[in-house]
Amino acid sequence: MSVSNRHRELVDGYCSGCLTGEEFSELEEALGRSRELRKLFAEYRSLETAIRAAGGVSYSVEPPREVSASRSRFSNLALAAGLVFFLGACLTLWINHPNSDRDLSGFSTSDESEEQMDDGIGQITQILNVVWTNPEDEREIGVISPDSLQFESGLIELEFFSGAKLILDGPADVELVSAEQMICRKGRLRGYAPPHARGFTILSPSVELVDLGTEFGMEISSEGEARVHVFDGEVELYRPDGKREAVGKKRLIAGDAVEVDSAGASRDIGNDSSVFPSFDRVQSEANDAVRRKLDAWQQWKEELALDPGVVVHYDFESPGTRLRAHGEDTRSFDGTIVGCEQARGRLPGKHGLDFKRLGDRVRVSIDGELEDLTFAAWIRVDALPQRRQALVMSDGFEPGHIHWQISPLGELRFGSRYLKKNKLAASGVGSPVVFGPREIGVWNFVAVTRRENIVTHFFNGVEVASAECAADKVLKIGAAEIGNWGKPLQRHKSAIRNFVGRMDDVIVWNRSLTPGEMQDIYERTRP
Q1: Which of 311, 347, 464, 475 is the most exposed, having the fewest neighbouring CB atoms within 10 Å of its CB?
Q2: Which residues contact 183 (CB under 8 A, 6 or more apart)?
Q3: Please, are residues 310 and 507 in contact by the beta-carbon 8 Å criterion?
Q4: Is 78 helix (H, G, I), strand (E, B) or coil?
Q5: Are 299 and 325 in contact (CB under 8 A)?
Q6: Which pLDDT value is given to residue 57?
């Protein structure tokens, strides 16, 4: 018995969790009759297992869908028995797959084998008015791995995982080696190393500085000359050969300052803290930058209100449990906040909505039909549980209704349902993994567009995936939820879809925004 298109649709539906009771029974019967279908089923199930094990990029073409609660006791028993067989087949297929190059000699099922690793050594905490030497090398605030930083002007604040803290003042050329060491080839910096960061080291062309728990300033000229000022505590200076020999060692305490030329000769100079950027200055400039960004957001919001393509904009600024909709004649689109709490948004002085508990959600009803559309939102994902998380999802999953969500692997997924030969079918497009460990707890701009059945995902203003999505010409939102799924309101069980994190600015357009427009929104509204 060959595998028909109908059988493939049933397997797709099972893997996405959307089969009705009748469809589930139809799949059971077909599995019992077809060896080829059982093999296909096992391959589908093994694919996700292999992706999880490899930690690779996954593209989903099926959105999650409604799970019927009308299954019989017999069906549940049959499913349990079938899964024992099929999961065993999945493992066998994966191990013996011709494309598999895995060495299973040390295969382990312990938690240690699943532990995620990261090479981060610290965090960039502030980037103020920085002009990068190479624009393509621009960095973002967040965790940083061993890396080089070259910039012509501006200030960068770094916090190393050792506890040391630095301010870099451009022009600068530095290399971050580890949580305890960096190389400065050019630039001015101010450093603070508390007792638990004792031993933090900065290597320059003319001298190696070892911090003994202090606050200091260091300036390296383009010719390699170094000036070291100690403001508190003490440091040790060595020749830049890494040997740290006693001969040539020099100890400086609070109030001392020296200049060391490229040949290693040193002389005392006057101590002057004013030539180095202070932590108070960085905080003051950061506050000014936040105010400018908040003003830019307000201006963008005013322009957005004049855009005839905006169906609705939720900015989460309204107090209480009523979520006010912004846009032309959108009073009926106001939502109701259930359980969520108002919290700080992506900017100080701006509000967002915090989703924590299983029942947290925003109920909305957005009427109308959309041939093209764009969804966009600023979100802070605080966890990636082993389930999908809703962004915006229509109640149920009827023809034309949409589901926009995040997969357990950290992919963005968008899908809708449609009628195919008088039977319900579903189609969707997924992105690569965009939410990894470093994106957890960080604000990111996500968006998806649909135009002439082409679905495109964007992450922080950049297109990350685009593919055709078979669906009805007209899409509908209707009764829907932000951050959850409305099916639990009905009298049967449904899959858990609650979002874990914060949202800030959710917008719907009745047109497909261009990549240029996406990049512009990101740059103008980013934190």
Answers
A1: 464
A2: 174, 175, 177, 202, 203, 204
A3: yes
A4: helix
A5: no
A6: 37
